[in-house]
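Could someone model zinc ion with this protein?
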Amino acid sequence: MDVSLLVVLIAALGIGWWLGQRESKQQRNSHFGLQADYYRGLNYLLNQQTDEALELFIHALEVNPQTVDTHLALGSLFRRRGEVDKAIQIHQNLLSGKGLDQEQVMLAELELAHDFIKAGLLDRAEELLLDVAQQPNQQKAKATELLVDVYQREQDWHKALKVGGAANVSASVDLAQRLSHFCCELAEQALQNSEEKECLSYLKRAKRHNVDNPRVSLLRAQLSMKQNHFFDAKKHLQTMAQQDLQLVPEIIEPLHLCYLKLDDAKGWQDWLNLAMSQHPSTSLLLAQAQEISQKDDSAAAAYMTEKLRQRPSLKGFNYLIDLHMQWASANAKDSLQVLKGLTVALQTSKPQYRCRQCGFAGNSMHWQCPSCHQWGSTKPIYGLEGE
Ligand SMILES: [Zn+2]
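Reply:
Sure, complex below.
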């Protein structure tokens, strides 16, 4: 059913019920005007003039404790269909009404704050949410989560942590996950400013909020590498792989550097084999082939051919073309060059990462999805066109 029609039907039902209540209380004479509006609204509705019908219904629906739910349902539906200005109007109208109890006022303020967030009016949302969060009421937890949302959008990680940290973290896994990433954001800034002590302190806090956050392990590794502690860095990167096998392609390069610095070629080979058996990816396959090609290019090409038969991928195919190009005749080289031009163009036209929450795809790894703002939902794409 069309959403706007649904909105108007809710209003019509709400007003119809309310007028019925009034009639039963023998007050019908004073409500002829409203009844007329109601029937005119129904006429608009029958003629599919939903906007006109809705305007009349909102006018007819008096704000009182019995009609609060109808107003809230209307406002929420408008917000969901993207008409935030109408949602704001309904919720502001509700708050200007008389006779609402404390819980109803808090609920309406929460909904209005939700509208303001959606409209990008973050200052106004913050003001309302602080009011709800500071008073004892049933909406306190929801207000706190929305307040965290406001500070997150403003990228004010300190305020987000202060408000979110005061909430009962165990009550929400999602909030704990977000708080952990806020600490990681601050740790990243500290790392860039070479404030190593602060960086470590934020990472410890991040781990307390979410012990399995792979981003914490990656940042711990980056910090250790900056301090030339390659053994520790290796350990943190391997922990990250255990925390999320799908992110293994992200650690191959820094982990290889750690093994090189530790002069442990055998350890690197063993890890590659183990990782490949646990969660195969094209990046791992390329790293294995590069190891083989250091001694014997033709053995690397034979290995790639065999593996690509089992697990074909564009990236792997490009590397195989490169290997063959070295010893091909002039004619064959030309053909291979044309072929590679095509496969590279195909590969670069495909996104490398996708958000598991909303499907947003791109070529960069984001810890927070730029589209749905979810944390930790973006992963490398696996399959023929990706890993
Ligand atoms: Zn997303």
